[in-house]
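Here is a protein:
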Amino acid sequence: MTPEQLKESIARAKEIVAQRVAAIELKKAATALAAEQAISLNRAKPLSVGAGHIQLTEGIQWNIEQQTAIDYAVYRKSFCLIGAAGTGKTTTLKGALQAMLANHTVPMLEESTKHLTKGTPGIALISYTRRAVRNIARQMPAHLKAHCITFHKLVEYEPQYYTEWNEELGEYVNKMRFGPSRGAHNPLPANLTTIVVDESSMLSIDYMNQLIEALPNPSQVQFIFLGDLNQLPPVYGQAILGKMLLQLPIVELTRVYRQALESPIISLALGVKDNNFTSFQMDAVDLWGLPAKYMYHGALPAGVSVNPKNYAASFDPKNVTEKVAMQKEGRGKVTLHPWKKVLSQEDALYAMQGQLRLWIKDGTYDPDEDLVLCPWNKSFGTDELNLAIADCLGKRRDVEVHEIIAGFNKYYW
């Protein structure tokens, strides 16, 4: 191949990659637009109920959207409850479930399963990850904590053994896979009439179909889908939340409460989402005890519309030169790990891969529980970081890890 032909091949390859990237971005934009249109078309309308008809609990002053969600729950209507972090989704759900129990709209289970007990309310609160289950269980009243379980526990995943013909060996071989033991042949209790799917943006349609198959009367079951349109999609498959947004009434919570913003985690997450860190920087000193030496000094940056005196009490990330933690009792913790010096892209990637290996070894990072969020795929991005994580985990188990590329998807075995 001549140098000119090589240049032409490289140019064609770049053009193909650019077209594929553009197609992916177009698909993302179309998906986001469809979600926005669905919310607009399916927005739940407040129910016309008489004052005092529903017995409420908690003594909380609910806003209109929260009250609508509670009304829909008590009247056993399926719906989607969406909103960003700090808008009160879990608090609203707790109020809705307590109102349902107070108004006796939930039957008691007449039989037990592996994880649900006979004689308790026929409610299950499920999520895809154990961490999400623990988070929602902490917010629920004591008599509902045991009802917070993973999807896999609800449908009782267990080893399934089978034989498969092996062409190379010319014989049948024994194999094992995990699958649900609950299904049409072994359904869940008929009195399980309310199922809450938390972080439903992470549960795939395929898993939802398995759950439907395990219900004896799925049309009689009330589903409440909680989600945040800014959350991560499922590891495999399409999210059930996107499908349900097109089919069910939607209650969207938009008001972020100051109490929620006292959490450095939520404040930082909202700053990333909105690309505006002013509130996070100001609260770092006032709420989370950041040392005064990190406070902002100098002229007010362009575009900052807050009181200059207030902004002067915020912190400047450029002043942070060592690891520092920001936390508030019961509100979470954010730790900043600044670079010691400016690094090139390659050196920064190498340093981050080494840091991840150290965190895996000392238990700071648990691959089964923790997520690493990175705004890029290539170079200093998820592709190379995942390779480092997979390599480290493989060496710990003394196995060889292979990266398998199937279309746009990557798998590690």
The radius of gyration is 25 Å. The longest strand covers residues 157-166. The CA atoms of residues 85 and 266 lie 6 Å apart. Residues 3-42 form the longest helix (40 residues).
